[in-house]
Amino acid sequence: MTNQSKVAGKRSLRVFLGAVVVILIVSIFTSTVFADSFNKYDVTILDNSEEFSITTNETEPIEILKTAGITLNSDDRIDLTKFEQGEGGTIKINRLNSINVEFEGNVQTYNVYSQTVGEALDEIGATVSENDKLNYSLSDAVENGMVISIKSAFSVTLNENGKNVKYAISRGKVSDLLSLADVTLDSDDYTQPAVNSELNAGMNVKVYHVDYKNEQATTAIPYKTKTVKDATLKKGTKKVVKAGKSGVKKTNYKVKYVNSKESARQKLSENVVSNPTDAVVKVGTKKVAKKTKKSAKKTTKKKAAKKKTTKKKTAKKKTTKTTASNGTVTPNGVKEKNGYKLGQVIQGRYTHYCACATCNGSSSGVTSSGKRISNGMKNPYYIACNWLPLGTVINVDGQNYTVVDRGGSGLSREGRIDIFTPGGHAECYRLGTGSCTIKIVRLGW
Questions:
Q1: Please, are residues 200 and 173 in contact by the beta-carbon 8 Å criterion?
Q2: Which distant-in-sequence residues (6+ apart) come within 8 Å of 51 by Cβ?
Q3: 3-class SS of residue 384
Q4: How far apart are CA 127 and CA 173, in angstroms?
Q5: Across 101-115, 172-186, 239-253, least confident range
Q6: Which helix (DSSP H) or strand (DSSP E) does residue 191 occupy?
Q7: From CA 38, how far away is CA 2, in angstroms rounded?
Q8: How far apart are CA 92 and CA 49, in angstroms?
Q9: Which H or E run includes 307?
Q10: Rounded Cα distance, 170 and 127, in Å
Q11: H or E stretch including 242?
Q12: Is the peptide bond prior to 276 cis by the omega test (within 30 degrees of 0)?
């Protein structure tokens, strides 16, 4: 016979335990839900012109943006100055957009992080006055690729490395233009006008980059010729006994380049590699027997005929144009120009340059006069200088040259010339520098 009271007690214990388990599960679920709800907070997201809010329990800004379905580009920036992790606030996304600013038909492209047109103009340094007219409102949102047209602002031109670029700007100094163009000046670089000069409409600002290089030039040391009298040789004849040989010296220079063109050269040291060997020449002193009367008469007739022919040649020569070793110089009738006179003789100093990028500033081969030069060409006998008009022909130690090119400030000094050498850079070093006598053959073209 079964004891009913014991069975009932067991059943009651089972029911009680089941109820306790249910209560614990409900309690755990409820506390989890409340805890999860308690950890969530509101975040406002500003994505350019769009604004929206989300509720999240994420603490990292990137994860919050992922939760909101927002993707960042590699150039975009996040502003967290008004956001606190776990507390909320505002996450501001500054998108990198490309805008175009148009002024007087000139369009300049800029990359900006600003969200409005007004902020973008401030970011690029283009201040808009009340009189300026825009095709957008300053409060309009920035859109990638938009063209902002400004009227009544002015444009300035920046010349750097031989390139002219126009910039639209409303006011500022040359230093502001350099900042706008992302141009950095080293300690020796300079501009014309100076960096502290105020900008004005139509201004042309030129950047001069200055570099210093240590260079070595190899030059020849000329040999001397010694003469020795020789009674076995007829008077008036010569015989080379020993050939002369030039010596070699190497000179180290500190060279100043302005925009890749040589401006100045300072000698640092000089080293003689080999001394010259003098030449020895015998000069005859042996007297020649006198000619007979008949021979003398014949010789006299020959001399007279030769003299007559010479006179004819001289008379004919006077009717021709002035001729140089490198061609005919056509007179232009100009006797005086820029303070210089036809036939004027000047003591000068020369250097050499070729058509390479180092000497010529670029490899284009185009001179200031439009004449083209190239290494390996037939020598056109050209020079560069700043103190004579283009087209001027000068005679340098017996050789005629035409002024076709300009150079650095060093070539502005009277008498300073740079001779073009089609033999290349090595030939420039070989020919070196020196003093010379300059005579003006023609002034200008």
A1: no
A2: 44, 45
A3: strand
A4: 13
A5: 101-115
A6: strand 190-192
A7: 55
A8: 10
A9: helix 293-318
A10: 6
A11: strand 238-242
A12: no
* 3-class secondary structure, 163: strand
Q: How far apart are CA 419 and CA 394, in angstroms?
A: 12
Residue 441 CA to its chain's centroid (Å): 35
Give the list of residues 6+ apart from residue 350 with CB closer than 8 angstroms, or none: 396, 417, 418, 419, 433, 434, 435, 436
Q: What letter represents residue 65's amino acid?
A: L
Query: pLDDT at position 318, please?
Result: 41
Instruction: Report d(CA 120, CA 126) in Å as an integer.
Output: 9
Which tokens sit at 350?
């020369």
Rounded CA separation 1/425 (Å): 127
- What phi and psi, each to the nearest 5 degrees, are found at residue 3? -85, 105
pLDDT in the model for residue 442: 97
CA 440 – CA 136 distance, rounded (Å): 62
290 pLDDT above the threshold of 70: no
Q: Are 217 and 353 in contact, with CB atoms under 8 Å apart? A: no
How do residues 76-112 score in pLDDT, each as one tens digit?
889 899 999 888 999 999 889 999 998 767 889 999 9
Dihedral-angle region of residue 32 (phi above 0 means left; psi in -120 to 50 means alpha; beta otherwise): alpha
| pLDDT tens for each residue of 49-80 | 788 899 999 989 999 998 888 988 888 889 89
pLDDT band at 322 (very low <50, low <70, confident <90, very high): very low
Residue by residue, DSSP assigns 277-301 as B-EEEEEEEEPPPPPPHHHHHHHHH
| Beta-carbon contacts of residue 19 (< 8 Å; ≥ 6 apart) | none
Q: What is the mean pLDDT of residues 142-147?
A: 92
Continuous segment of H or E residues that includes residue 25: helix 4-39
Distance CA 79, CA 278 (A): 82
Q: What is the pLDDT, as a whole number, of residue 149?
A: 86
Evaluate if residue 155 carries a pLDDT over 90: no
Residue 321 has pLDDT above 50, yes or no: no
**Per-residue pLDDT at 26:** 47
